[in-house]
Amino acid sequence: MVKECSNCLYREPHPFGLSFIDSECSGCFTHKEKDVLNWNGRLEQLKEIIERHKQSNKSSYDCIVPVVGDAEDYFVLHNVINVLGLKPLVVCVNDYFYNDIGWQNLHNLITVFDVDSMIYNPDMHLYKEMIRTTLRRHDHILWPAIALRTSYPVHVAVSRKIPLIIWGQHQAIEQVGKFSHVDSVTMSDWSRQQHDLMDITLQQQVGNGAQVNTKHLNYYRYPDIKKVSQKKVTGIYLSNYIRWDPLSQNQSMLKYGFCPEYQSATYDPYEKAGSSVYYHIHDLLKQKRVGYRKIMDHLSRDIRHGYLERKQAKLLYNKFSEQPIDVKPFFTWLGMTKSGQQWFIKHKLQSVAHLLNGEQSEAYVLPSRLTKHISMGCHSEKSYISFGKGI
User: Which of 12, 17, 176, 339 could form a disulfide with 27 if both were Cys (CB 3.0 to 4.6 A apart)?
Assistant: First the structure.
């Protein structure tokens, strides 16, 4: 029998791995730490870690903060600058999937926090070929972007001798309780491979039909472990030291000019706002790969935070998970012919074909405990903007 958590909506199997204690999943069990840990003490531990890195740091920057421009990045920079008093170098990888809201949020982030920044634009031809490969082999279009986002900032840290990288949440802890918060898990190539990249290796993406020259894949690879160790580069996750409550903390970032985005496939207007694909073709492929859509992550998260009951969440999941998805804009961006699109839909998307047609339904009722943390989202006017300034 498939095990299902008696508290949240998660069930076996889960892409990060899920264990059970009686009828409760490991994610809900670990979440309870949030209510008993001394978070003031955890913050002091973080400050001690930062101070140790400052003593050996010869760079003009205290740390690197990787960003995409969504609400979590605003929250991270708020804490890095205003709470911890650090001078960060902001590093961003352009995935070429930003819409107008995404570019506005990214450049507003850089402007309002007045930070130095680097935006890496990967080779478009190579990047699209990598997407074609991961789409064909693994039903995934964001693997190349994730590979770059979890590797390029580390390359920058090594080359510029900046010993500290500060990330936001540790996704495997927040979703499935893979570790305890007090383990203070740090960045590693192993964790990146197992969780961020779903144990799909770069070697699996080359050869056998992929038109990719391996010598051009440097930033898709994690830097040599010896170099990372020699430069004493460490990556830490703020969610291990600050009580993480995405919906509440993301809403608080509106004061910095962050623009939330309306999404028909979720009630959360903050996470991944500004992406042309995240709640569209990516969400469809997530349904095919793991059997559920992103809304389940949001509902399970907010059950744990006490914003809604499990019974309410089930009804909302049934509503949001049936929202239709238009895949044609992505296929057009990728350069797929009409006949190729028809073949792919017929032969590769047959299990989720019911989500390709129909009208969007906006009639749903959210509990008041949830709605007080949700702000009105803006509607994107233009998608798939490869390059933009946003301000």
Answer: 176
Ranges 109-113, 194-198, 358-362: which has the least confidence? 358-362
pTM across the whole model: 0.95
Please report, for residues 62, 81, 87, 238, the alpha-carbon distance to residue 84 in angstroms, rounded to integers and kept in the order given. Answer: 11, 6, 9, 11
E strand residue ranges, the chain: 20-21, 24-25, 63-67, 88-93, 116-120, 164-167, 234-237
Q: How far apart are CA 73 and CA 317, in angstroms?
A: 27
* pLDDT tens digits, one per residue of 189-201: 999 999 999 999 8
Rounded Cα distance, 319 and 296, in Å: 11
Give the whole-angstrom CA distance, residue 299 versus residue 313.
6
How many C-beta atoms lie closer than 10 Å to residue 45's C-beta? 14
Amino acid in the structure at residue 71: A
Cα torsion 147, 10, 301, 312 to 10°: value is 140
- CB of 293 within 8 A of CB of 265? yes
Q: Which tokens hold the place of 161?
A: 């001798």
The neighbouring-strand residues paired with 167 are: 237
